[in-house]
Amino acid sequence: MLDVQNVTRVFGDKRAVDRVSFTLHQPGFIGIIGSSGAGKSTFLRMMNRLTDATEGRILYEGQDILPLRGAAARNWQSRCAMIFQQFNLVPRLDVVANVLHGKLNRQSTLATMFNLWSRADILRAIDILDRLGIAEQATKRAEALSGGQQQRVAIARALMQDPAIILADEPIASLDPMNAQIVMDTLKRINVEDGRMVIANLHTLDTARRYCDRVIGMRDGRIVFDGTPEQLTTGVARDIYGADETFNEHATSTAIRPERAVPAARVAVH
Ligand SMILES: Nc1ncnc2c1ncn2[C@@H]1O[C@H](COP(=O)(O)OP(=O)(O)OP(=O)(O)O)[C@@H](O)[C@H]1O
């Protein structure tokens, strides 16, 4: 269903993404890991057509999405929703309005300008918020919510597009461990219950192991690991991150450790 062939992005003399290829036959939960600058965000941005590729093809159900322009590119973007580390909500708008913005690609400009949402759309937005456990926040301004709640609003906005794929660029990097878990559980439910493919850039190994069916490791723009969470041993992780034997993967953990009062450090291998 998704066939990525030799996708490359060059910035000046830097090959940010270098001949990346992989195939997904099922709408699984895929994690992409790698140290800072490995090319993870650039790859997701190419998939979502926010960044142009220099070379390669991304076939989704047989169609190459990389040459799409204008309305066709926007149509692809609504099939392939993206969420970001910083949530990218409109802070002063209320939660429901933010969720309804997920329909922007499919709504006329005039209707959007005057916030003319149909009753059916508003009810659907509230239903999605309810499913994600935040319906009671619907009338609040987005900026009044906690980070974890804001990320769930961003997921609700993505679901409003009814996407086949959700791309998540470090979705929990700004969250405390408790909220990180709620957001990851939400993404997993959407994957399992709805059959939507999730591809997430993740900065912690324990998260990749716990939630993903398949993990792709990137280093210097290239795929250096592609396997199951079980195959992602400490030694493999050390290679992906280009770390030496002092590499301590517990330092990359987001786990909630009840026996410890202080949450573990979020990032150590960036
Ligand atoms: N617009 C750009 N112009 C020039 N270089 C860029 C641009 N975007 C990314 N790069 C470079 O491409 C490389 C890959 O960056 P990218 O953001 O994709 O990495 P990443 O793995 O997502 O890192 P991080 O975890 O820090 O977000 C880096 O060397 C980065 O500096």
Description of the structure:
With 270 residues, this protein is α/β, with parallel strands linked by helices. It has a single domain (2-252), classed as Rossmann fold, CATH 3.40.50.300. The protein contains nine helices and ten strands. The strands form two sheets. It has a six-stranded mixed sheet with strand order 6-7-8-3-9-10, sandwiched between helices. The longest helix has 18 residues, at 177-194. Adenosine-5'-triphosphate (ATP) binds at residues 11, 14, 16, 34, 36-42.
Question: Keywords for this structure?
Answer:
Rossmann fold, disordered C terminus, alpha/beta, single chain, six-stranded mixed beta sheet, 9 helices, globular, 270 residues, 33% helix, four-stranded antiparallel beta sheet, binds adenosine-5'-triphosphate, 23% strand
